[in-house]
Amino acid sequence: MLRRSPNGLSTIRLRLGAGLALALAPVLLLGATQALIEFRKDAESQRVSLALAAERSAATARARMTSAGVLLETLAPQAVGFDCAQRLAEITHRLPGYDNLIRLDAKGRIACAAASVPADPAGRFDGAELAVISLDSLRPDLSDSALPPHTEVALADSRGQFLTRTQAWAFPAPPADFADRARRQRSILFHGRDGHGEERISSAAPLIGDVYLLLSAPAPGLFSWARLNPLSSLLLPLLAFSAALIAVWIVAERVVIRWLTYLQRIAAIYGKGRLSVRPKQADRAPAEIRDLALALESMAEAIDARDGSLRATLAEKDALMREIHHRVKNNLQVISSLLSMQQRALGDSVARNAMADTRRRIAALALIYRALYQGVDLKRVNLRQFLDDLLGQLVMEQQAGGRAIRTELSADDLIIDPDKLAPFALFAVEAISNAQKHALAINGGVLKVKFAVEGDHAELSVIDEGSGAPPELAGGGVGRTLMTAFARQLRGRMELAANDRGGVTTRLTFPTPALGGAGGQAGGRGKAKASRAAA
After folding, report:
1. What's the rounded Cα separation, in Å, for the pair 32 and 38?
2. Distance from C-alpha of 184 to C-alpha of 206, rounded to nearest angstrom
3. Are strands 445-454 and 405-412 parallel, antiparallel or unpaired?
């Protein structure tokens, strides 16, 4: 038997969603892989660009220094006379990068200069010309598109001491051997953290003499690179993955899930017995769902037809069983009538009494069959109604020498099957007959019959007022023997006890029959009281 799942983890929605996510996962992984490859390529390109920029800037600075020497040699014969300072100043204005041009005489004194000179050089020589180039003029142009974004420039000596920097915080301390390595390899790369604690990549290249050029740029990070390249990295694959998943999810919900839910409601209606309902809305569903709805409808029609056939068969069998019970009751009444005729023909009073007892027992059995075919259910009888009919039948047949016998019945509802009803009815016949014969036959009186259901036990009590003589509880006759046997058939016990009215109380206690798991009780428990009198 199939059981309902205790949670929603096995629903079609979740399984379909998991399957779609698994199917689309390669798209997302491919996009992430491509993004990682592009990131590495971009980082390598940035490192190469930084190294090449350092080499290119160093070469440019060296070329400027070389051109300064050539320029001085060219100007040497002309750097004399009254107009010397003026000519040198014009040259510095025309050639950017030179702060000053100075002419020294043989004694080392300044003969003329393009700009003011802070101090005289010392030493002996025949004379010279000097070209003054500022360190800032040797730095590369930061607007160069070949440089990585946010590149900073600095000049340092071989010991790592910075001579000039565009941003002081942007340069981590260079390695101790960076000067030797830069001279051997033309340029080197190294990493470090700047003054703000962020990772940066730096390039160093020899400039001239003991001066080195350093370039520093932010180290490429995955997230920083992804922010610069969102569409080509992770955003587009993720959007494609999400869009495909949502689209397929919506289509599955509209095309499959809602129709399955609709068919589930139809099946629940069929389960309640309403087989006339038809899944008409399924005409708008896909072909597979329509086929399933048609199969469900065909199943409902087949079940309805089979139920109709079963109901007809059951009705026929019910009518047949009622007819059988009716005929059995009629046959028992015929037997009772024959015994009554035989009883009237007998002269022996003992034989007549024995014949009367037998006839009453047969009449009780006939009453059982009448209750079965006249009742709603052929397999169950309500003991309250049965006791009322049985008591009336027994009292009407018995006369008490002209003295009336009044009966009082108090009974609870209890549904019982015919197998238990027969010994119960015969016990009641014996108990009531004994009370009539031994206690009420002479003086009449009140006969009380009580039937009570208490939990899983039921109790029948037959109470008489006695004949005036002390009741005899000892000994054993046929009636007492039969009552004991009937009590055993009901898995109960029989008791005889004197009551406070001077009579005898016959009590039968037996387990409540369990019918259909309902404890043998049908509907609410009621109690009926009836009173009859017979003369």
Report:
1. 10
2. 10
3. parallel
Q: Which among 187, 258, 182 is positioned nearest to 13, based on CA atoms?
A: 258
Return the structure tokens found at 275.
Answer: 């087989």
**E strand or H helix at 155:** strand 152-157
Letter for the amino acid at 448?
K
CA distances from 444 to 65, 117, 140, 403, 467 (A): 153, 160, 140, 5, 8
Task: Please state, in angstroms and rounded to a whole number, the distance separating the CA atoms of residues 420 and 468.
Answer: 35
* N-terminal to C-terminal alpha carbon distance within the chain: 64
Give CATH 3.30.565.10 domain extents, the chain.
Answer: 381-535
The model's pLDDT over 119-152, given as tens digits with 9 standing for 90+, comes to 544 544 445 555 556 656 655 666 666 667 778 8
On the question of pLDDT at 211 being above 60, the answer is yes
The answer to whether 447 and 407 are in contact (CB under 8 A) is yes
Amino acid at 227: R
Confidence bin at 228 (pLDDT 50/70/90): very low
Strands 128-132 and 493-498 turn out to be unpaired
- Parallel, antiparallel, or unpaired: how do β-strands 162-165 and 527-534 relate? unpaired
Of 91, 56, 90, 86, residue with least CA distance to 72: 91
Q: Give CA–CA dist 383/415, Å, rounded.
A: 6
Architecture field, domain 381-535: 2-Layer Sandwich (3.30)
Instruction: Kindly report the pTM of this predicted structure.
Output: 0.46
Assess contact for 176 and 188: CB atoms under 8 A: no
Give CA–CA dist 436/440, Å, rounded. 5
Strand order in the sheet with 162-165: 162-165, 152-157, 211-218, 199-208, 188-193
Query: Both tokens of residue 382?
Result: 């309500």
